[in-house]
Each structure stands twice: as C-alpha cells, then as structure tokens.
Amino acid sequence: MFKKRVQKKSPSRNRSPRLENTPNKVFSYYSMQRPTEIEEGERTSARKNRGEVTAKNSRHILLKRIGLFGIFVGIVGLILYNGRIVPSDVQVVFKGKPEQRLLLQDASVYKLATEQLMQQKLQNRTKFTFDTTSFSHSLTQRYPEIAQAQVSLPLFGNVPTVYIQPSSTALIFVAKDKRSYLVNTEGYVIAGNNGKAASTTPVVIDQSGIQPKVGSQALPYNDIRSIQLIVGELRDKKIAINSLVLPLAAQRLEVHLAGKSYYVKFSLHEKVQQQIGAYVAVQRKLDREGTKPKEYVDVRVADRVYYR
User: Fold this and answer.
1) Shared-domain flag, residues 146 and 255
2) Hey, is 141 helix, strand or coil?
3) 296 forms bridges with which residues in the sheet?
4) Which regions in the chain score pLDDT beneath 70?
5) Tens of pLDDT, residues 31-49
6) How far apart are CA 257 and CA 232, in angstroms?
7) Residue 266: which of 228, 294, 212 has the closest Cα?
8) Which residue range forms the structural domain that includes residue 120?
9) How many folded domains does the chain comprise?
10) Total-model pTM
C-alpha cells in the first residue's frame, strides 16, 4: 500500500590516485618567507658586502699612507744627511796675487782653525744654519793676514770650501825700538817684517811712540789712505822719496825727499792733491829763484806755503 522509499546513494568522494614515488609535502610556516623577510635579508647581505668593500679600502688606504710616510721619512733623512757639514774634510783655497800670498801661513793652519770654529757652534754644523758672517769675522780676527774668508757650501755633498783673500800690505811700520811690522790697508798689523813685502812698499818711521802689536790697529784707516795718496802722487810726479816719518805731532807726515836738504810737512787730514799741487808749485818757484830751504817746506794750510 505504501511504496518503499528508495534511498539515494550519496555521491562518493573520488580521490586522485597517489603516486608511489611522490614524496609527501609537509607544510612549514618557516618555509613560507614573507616579503619583508626577503628585503631584510637583501639589506643584510648588502651591508655585509659594503663592510667587506670598506674594510678592503681601509687596508688599501692604510698601506698607501704607510708608503707615503716611508717616502717622506726617506726624503727628510736624505735632506738632513746632505745638509750636514764635515769639518774634518774642509778644503782651503788661497786667492789674491802671488806676492800677497807670501804673507799667508800654511793651508793646514787655516784648515785646523776652520775645524775648531765649526765645532765650537752647533749651528755651524749644518748648511741650513751656518753663519758665514760670524765665521769670516772670527777667522780674520784670529789671523790678521787674512783680509776676507768666504765659505762655499756645496748643494750636494758635505765638504765646505774656504776661500782666503790675503791682506794687502800698505806700508812697513818701523817702531821706536827699531822693530818693523807689516801694516795692511785697514791700518792693522798683520805680521812682523819677514822680508816678504814688495820692494816698493813704503817705509814709515814712527817717532810718536806707537807700540804696534800683531792683530791690533797701528794707524787709522784714513791715515793709511792719506799716506798712500801722498806716496802715489809724488811717485807719479817723479819725485823720489827718501823716508817717511810720523813725528810726535798728531795727524802729520814728514816726507824726506831724495837729494833735498829739507823735508815736506803734510797733513793727513787735509786734501792730499791740493797739498801736493802746492808743493810742486813752490818747488818750481824756489828753483827759479835759486832758493834752498834748509829745514822744511810746510804745505798743510790751504793756499799757504811756509818754508824755512
């Protein structure tokens, strides 16, 4: 009477066949990287690379600085080595005329003195601090026969060269004790009369009592200059000189002429040419008149001539 309900079969779930050799995939949270983690990894890797590059550059810069410092130290050392002076190897060279060199001592004497002067002061041991003016002054003060001493320091090398200019003998000075000395153009006594002076060197006989000493000044420069001018002017005019005398009176020179019975009084502080001209004029006048002074002719006063 009632029909039997037929139950419908529910569709079954069909599963795909499993392959035997396919491994089972296991889900892992950590295996699934998020984008932020990837970026962080890249940044870390980039920082690591930059760090390696920076370290490499730092080492390169350090090595470069060490190399430059080494070069700098080498250059400074070379300059300092080249700038030092070796006094023991100093060379001495004489200048001037042969007759002037006769008054100089052996070169070894000046070499030893140069070594001593260079070793006395620390500043004279390097080319950078060497005081040439002080050195020249010290050497000329110690050896009055030297007029000038010049030091040549080589650009490359450590051996200095000293050039010595000898003094010129202006006159032979005969003191009251009959001892004679050589006096240079500055008026300083450079040596005793050793017979090496030229035969034309004027001889001045002192009666004023000057006590000459080697290295000291016997006469002022102006007096020496005036004596040289008087002698030179008379020689130019072919007037022979017998002797030159420095009397007790200061600033005066008495010139005894060859073949004359009188001497001529000159002032060492007045114009020499004017005095010479006055004497030549009065001598001609006296010769014309046949007058012969018995004692002296005085030309020291300008435009005035006195004789006795």
Assistant:
1) no
2) helix
3) 263
4) 1-53, 76-83
5) 555 556 556 666 666 666 6
6) 14
7) 228
8) 87-166
9) 3
10) 0.68
pLDDT of residue 57: 74
Residue 138 lies in a domain: yes
The candidate with the shortest Cα–Cα distance to 173, out of 130, 222, 214, is 214
Name the residue with tokens 């000395």. 181
* Dihedral sign (CA 229, 231, 234, 236): negative
- Measured CA to CA, the distance from residue 185 to residue 271 in angstroms comes to 19
- How much of the chain is helix, strand and coil, in % rounded to 5? 40, 20, 40
Hey, what are 102's tokens? 């006769």
Identify any residues that bridge with 163 across adjacent strands, giving them in sequence order. Answer: 93, 150
The C-alpha atoms of residue 155 and residue 45 are separated, in whole angstroms, by 60
Which one-letter amino acid corresponds to residue 246? Answer: L
Are β-strands 241-246 and 252-257 bridged in parallel, bridged antiparallel, or unpaired? antiparallel
Rounded to an integer, what distance in angstroms lies between the CA atom of residue 297 and that of residue 308? Answer: 7
